[in-house]
Amino acid sequence: MSCDDTATKYDVFLSFRGLDTRSTFISFLYKELVRMNIRTFKDDEELENGQRISPELKRAIEESRFAVVVFSVNYAASTWCLKELVKIMDLENKGSITVMPIFYRVEPGHVRWQTGVVAEQFKKHESREDHEKVLNWRQALAAFAQLSGDCSGVDDSNLVDKIAHEISKKKSIFATISNGKNLVGIDTHMKELNRLMDLKSNKDVRMVGIWTRGGDGRSALAKYVYQDICQQFDSHCFLGNVKTISQGRHSAHLHHEFLQNIQRENPNKQSLKNQKVLLVADDVDKLKQLEALAGDFSSFGPGSVVIITTQDQQLLNSYGIKDVYEVDILTFQKVCRLFAFKKRDISAAIRRALCRATNFATECFCCQSSTSGYWKVTDSV
């Protein structure tokens, strides 16, 4: 469990090859991001070959929530860009940054398979650079190319608008739901949940459970997931407070509640049969609640996802839900708040003491430690 303060200074870090895009696409994108009050880091000085990335630049990447990587024709020719990409993808692998690939006037296949102009650029690197270093660049590029991204078209303004609005939406979701503090390590949680949801699959309905022993984080995480992915489905519904709305009512009431919700969210959809549907049922506490909804999601089409959140792990087991995300880390938020300090200059000795105290509290609450996220000591009560 880490006790580092990981507050983000920037919303976006822009990674690009200035030769290709500084005065065109990047200029327009940066202007739009700033106009929308999105804190953006844009480095105005490129390093010469052989120079190291400065500590300030590394810190800017580490302190950003999103990295927009604009891969243009000469991006891979720059050792500076490749070093930057290695750092970005290392953080992406740890779940501490979200990478948004933009393939700017290049063929994505050439990037993914490192063919064409990319292959030629790497041949030059191999003739001049250390083999291990070039291998790291290749691996970072391969991981980057596997991420879902956007391609430039005839009109750059459309792509600029899309990127800016997508970041603004995600920023707003995170600020509204987590208030920047309640959900720590959101990128790590999303990375694991995306693996379980397997959104690229077109197989039968996929059921995923989110389980915690208590706390408010479970519902907040479910809402964040819903807002983040709902646009990828034909129809979608967030059914909140299932436990509350089911109390003292016939199980059919839950079915009617679902129909009302999904009609409100998708007014033009007449039937859910064979549609790709997202259903999030939050705070389920009885098996009969799942059974009441089963008639609905059994008719969903291929690629549909049903997410169930609960405090009862046995409930998920009884229904046969095998893909379960256990979120111990969210339980610790109230514990962490107990150790909030007003002063920013907390000494290393105090930090170590807080870690020991939190570990003791963890044992007292009979909660296992988790490596799926991290927590931070807040600077204000």
Your description of this structure?
- With 381 residues, the chain is an alpha/beta fold.
- The protein is built from 16 helices and ten strands.
- The strands form two sheets. It has a five-stranded parallel sheet, sandwiched between helices.
- β8, α13 and β9 (305-310) form a beta-alpha-beta unit.
- 33% of the residues are buried.
- Residues 1-7, 178-182, 329-353 and 360-381 have low confidence and may be disordered.
Keywords:
381 residues, alpha/beta, 5-stranded parallel sheet, 47% helix, elongated, disordered N terminus
Task: Tell me the layout of helices and strands.
Blueprint: E1 10-15, H1 18-21, H2 25-35, E2 40-42, H3 55-62, E3 64-71, H4 79-93, E4 98-103, H5 108-113, H6 116-128, H7 131-145, E5 150-151, H8 156-178, H9 186-197, E6 206-211, H10 217-229, E7 235-239, H11 242-246, H12 252-265, E8 277-281, H13 287-297, E9 305-310, H14 313-319, E10 323-326, H15 333-338, H16 348-364
Parallel strand pairs: 1-2, 1-3, 3-4, 4-5, 6-9, 6-10, 7-8, 8-9
Helix pairs in contact: 2-8, 4-7, 8-10, 12-13
